[in-house]
Fold this protein.
Amino acid sequence: MKTRLLTAILLAATVSSAHAATFQLVNNDGPGEGFNDPTPVSPIGGNPGTTRGQQRLNVFLAAGNIWGQLLPDNVTIVVEATFDSQSPCDASGGVLGSAGANSVASDFPGALIPNTWYSIALANKLNGSDMDPGQSDIVAQFNSDVDNATCLGTIGWYYGYDHNEGSNIDLLAVVLHELGHGLGFETFADLTTGDFLLNKPDAYARNLFDLATNLPWDQETSTQRRNSSVNSGQLVWGGATVKKNAPQFLGQATIVRVDSPPDVAGFKEFNTAQFGPALPSPALQGELMLVDDGTGNAGDGCEAIQNGAQISGKIALIERGTCTFTSKVARAQAAGAIAVIIGNDTSGAPPFLPGTDPSITIPTVSITQDDLVMLEDQILFGNPVMVTMGGDPSQLAGTDGQGRPRMYAPPALAPGSSVSHWDTPETPNLLMEPFINSDLTGVDLTQSAFADIGWLGTLTAVADGPVAPAAPRAFAAPNPFSTSTAIHFALARAGATSIEIYDVKGALVKRLSSAWRPTGPQSAGWDGTDARGRPSPNGIYFWRVRSGNAGAGASGRVVRIH
């Protein structure tokens, strides 16, 4: 069974590689716009295009090549895309782009689970043939206004391949993100009602788990799913492959935890401050003490603190009020507080705390209004409250107690963002979070999620071990080369793999790839440029493939001649 979600089709450009998925880009832009924009530009970051439109097209082809090398598929994946003006977009923020599956299918020959929707690209892969020939698989659109001063001010698109975007926005990361949605990193459930599409769960939703009900999404009622989609911190990815491989991509958690009394103990949702130091690692622990400034709302810390002797050496609890966050914290610091927690004065998520004050040397976080009231009650009734704040090596960032990554489920439903993204506490940032980040260089944990929904089979956890040489050996070809070469190798085990180029002095010239790769034959191309896209001089270069924690791998040398 198939159902159409979107429609359209036009001209095409194709990118492919051996033993990999083939992506066909459909250019839906008109003459002189989008992919056809004739504005002259200089090559940048490995992108050789000399017009804005060509550089945009090149980035799409590069993104297709990256996904193509990671996803096994004998059926061409057709992506139709445009660059157009999109709203909202002004100096303070805007939409970068969007993408999704053009249609879905269920109960087809090759389907892994009956009564389950699959994005059409994944359905075609599992079926072994195109079930909807003549139609695209993914529809994408991107905001051409990002290159204009009216949208995001001086920030523009960065069209290089090397993730050297600086203060601009890395188009390659954004395209990788949006293609990820179209390939299946999205639910087709109606989040306003919690209803599944035509009462069938999708492969993505079958991997979601609700901590509040202790049920998988496909076993919940529509009402439970609707509530789960706006219950921040309580929706996680339950797939086994993501859980197994999360330690390879996520660092230690930064936490705010109430240790005692038992009635209020547990991890608390929090936000951070623009001023002062980050939460420390290892974490600090201290008793929580409510600030009293003796005036009006005595707990808001907007006047001189009267109970300084009680605050000294403790964590200060302050209510949000009319004065600035920095002034509150400065008063608590002067009273001897070792850290500050500011409780919100309205319902909803803890607020980010803006402000600048170089004199502040203690960490500050915010918590919800509900948690503020609960903690105040304990203190006012004479129950000592102990709190731990900072790095927790026993837990991964953005995961639950079992190491399952959280999904984005803010209290106010965000159409197009809620549920179909990783949550924002995951650190380092992940490609499929709802907001683009400057530290994205690959597809990270997303490939493990694709294994859970059926793209790759089950990926094993990354293990120390050598890279098996391709038969008969790992090599670069052509060698010598002038304009480009490819490094060929094979992996004995799937895992996080990096491919790097060094000069004869041992200095890193360029990192070609740092991503999850499946077992078997692999290849990665090098165009002879360095990390900034500049042509490397003639000479001998060494390449190295590393897989697993031990860093063992294949290596060799290649000669460049112009």
Residues 475-560 form a domain with the Immunoglobulin-like fold (CATH 2.60.40.4070). Confidence is low (pLDDT under 50) at residues 2-18, 458-472. The first strand starts at residue 2 and ends at 4. Residues 199 and 531 are 49 Å apart (CA to CA).
